[in-house]
Design goal:
The protein contains 4 helices and no strands. By secondary structure, it is mainly alpha-helical. α1 runs antiparallel to α2, α2 runs parallel beside α4 and α3 runs antiparallel to α4. The chain has one domain.
């Protein structure tokens, strides 16, 4: 019998729903993304960041900062490539990366702030 940890259940579900929503919205609504959906993604990012446990902070920060940097670089490069080459898939990938940024930037900020406050208290 497998024993499952339930300590980060809310954060895990917020992460799963956020990534799924970001990818679906990026694929199907890349031309006009509703600001309400972007707000939902940002709130889910805040929830994800709040529920990251102390033992996972370093791993989360490395992974999320890497994802944010690569997503931003990908958006910048894909927009230029799509404009020059006329590739239609560039808009889809750019929209998915943009929605992932909306999810991960708030989560990264919350975890970084929690880490700084924990360091300041010790």
């Amino acid at each position: 019998m497998v024993i499952k940890s339930r300590e980060n259940l809310i954060g895990a579900w917020a992460f799963f729903v956020g990534v799924l929503l970001a990818v679906v919205v990026g694929i199907f609504f890349q031309s006009a993304i509703n600001p309400i959906i972007l707000g939902i993604l940002a709130v889910l990012g805040l929830v994800v960041g709040y529920f990251v446990s102390e033992k996972d902070v370093q791993t989360f920060l490395i992974a999320s900062v890497s994802l944010v940097i690569v997503s931003y670089a990908g958006i910048s490069g894909l927009v230029i490539n799509a404009a020059v080459l006329g590739i239609g898939i560039g808009h889809i990938v750019s929209a998915v990366l943009g929605t992932l940024l909306v999810l991960f930037v708030p989560a990264t900020i919350i975890v970084a702030l929690k880490t700084v406050f924990a360091i300041a208290q010790s």
